[in-house]
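Posting this for the archive.
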Amino acid sequence: MERFLITCEPTNESHVYKGKDFRISVLSDRLFRIELGKADAFEDRPTQTVLCRSFATPDVDFSLKGANLTVTTNSVVLKFNTQIKTVKIKDRKTNAYLSTKGNLGGTRRTLDMRLGAVDLGKGLMAKGGVSMFDDGKSLVLEGGMVVPRKKVKDYYIFAHNHDYLGCLKDFYNLTGKVPVIPKFALSNWWSRYFPYSEESYLALMDEFISRKIPITVATIDMDWHLVKEVPKEYKGSNIFLGRGWTGYTWNKKLFPDPQRFLKALKDRGFWTTLNIHPADGIRAFEDPYPEMARAMGIDPATKKTVEFDLTDKKFLLAYFDVLHRPFEKD
């Protein structure tokens, strides 16, 4: 589907070494990809994480002696045992072996309902000079759609020693460089999970303005849509918020005139975003349901839920055109 198509150039064959049950690709002087499994499972299509595998042309030499494959670039020497699948990496400048010790940590999806210290998991950078990213669980992108992949071990090895900026640049090249975002998005966003009304929210924004607190983005949390008012016969996937977790219908008790509310925010110089959680699909009580159901070939009279399924091409188009575009227009 051209509209959502993402292409990915495969790594140049001169930078790839294939074995019976492994493939090693050299993506830069210090970035390597190692795939382990059956050869027909090796993947050149983009994944949910990796969008580019041909962004550099490093000098590389492959040398196989017995079961030991040596991969040499201008920066490091990678030694791979083709039988037991072990890896050793030596930095050519310091002539010292690198390790995965002293990983500097990664990121966490959310801090909701957490107290005290949290585990950040493994990150891209390590004091020992090597980190590893496992992309084996990512789905594949094909023809603008998300599709399953064959089972395989798919590792990216970052051997940047203490060149942390270089490591980050290689990661951006691999996963897609971050688009330049508008300047207003770099300022403060206001977000609080609280059932504001039009009146109370605008009063708060006016308070920020009067105190000269710089807010540029007004984030309206999930109470903009129906939460407690969802009919009891509808179930929800969220164990805490239940049936009101997903919603596409303005709560008119709190926001009797949504367009007036949005215009009032814009007149004050704020940009607005609405919080959504789409897991429960589009259910029959929702305002956009009849149009969404018809777009999916469902008779609205059946009140059958339009399930959230981004692997369905028809749903993917309707998800944006029927559900999101009207809100964006408002």
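The mean pLDDT is 94. The first strand starts at residue 16 and ends at 18.
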